Amino acid sequence: HLENGDYYAKKITFKTFAVFNKDIYSHRYFYVLDEKSNVVGYAVAVWIVIDTQRRKMTRIPLKVQNVFIDSLDEKNLSIEKRIIEGISVSPLKKIRNVDYTHERAFPVRFNDIDSNLHVNNTVYVNWAMESLVSAEDEDFLIDHVPSDLSIVYKKEKRAGGKVIVKANLAGLTSYHEIYDEEGCLLSLVELTWKKR
Which of these three, 61, 86, 111, is where a domain ends? Predict the structure, then answer.
């Protein structure tokens, strides 16, 4: 969530901290402070560790947990407590019987690929946003900016091929399903928009 999108050429500070749950996953919280130390943005992500040999989830190593626990910022504990209490950690769920208002295919470009040889997480958000541009309505992205984002990654997309984004835009909320060329669901995205 961002309070507004007008941070160009302004000093902002990003902070992060982790809360571990049963050593299996971590909620990683992020927040943004303006020049006066006001919280102007926040986010949460769920982090897991994958055993690359078995391709399965594994416990988060204690030495990794300790790095985050040791780096807690004592002076920001009250801010961090408010952020934990104020953010929903419920994952976005697939909506049934969606009336799609937009559908668009995108090629997977070489620049979309990260060092793990799969599509970088930020590209999914770009695809979701770009899917709302159509011949009938080229101005939506010019007139609006996202204020809230919820995303769930279901499956990684490797280099090559294309993705298909199906979207429903209702008022200032858009819901997106991103599929690979074989019809496998890769990601769910929900954006809340506001006027520029």
Answer: 86
What is the Cα–Cα distance from 180 to 108, expressed in whole angstroms? 10
Query: Is residue 3 situated within a structural domain?
Result: no
Count: domains in the chain = 2
Summarize pLDDT for 74-87 with one digit per residue, the tens: 667 778 878 888 78
Q: pTM above 0.85?
A: no
Rounded Cα distance, 57 and 195, in Å:
41
Token pair of 87 as six digits? 């953010």
Total residue length of the chain? 196
Residue 67 three-state SS: helix
Q: Output b/e per residue, 123-152; b: 16+ Cβ within 10 A.
A: bbbebbbebbeeeeeeebeeebbbbebbbb
Which two structure tokens, joined as six digits, stand for 177?
Answer: 């399903």
Answer for the pair 162, 149: CB distance below 8 angstroms, yes or no: no
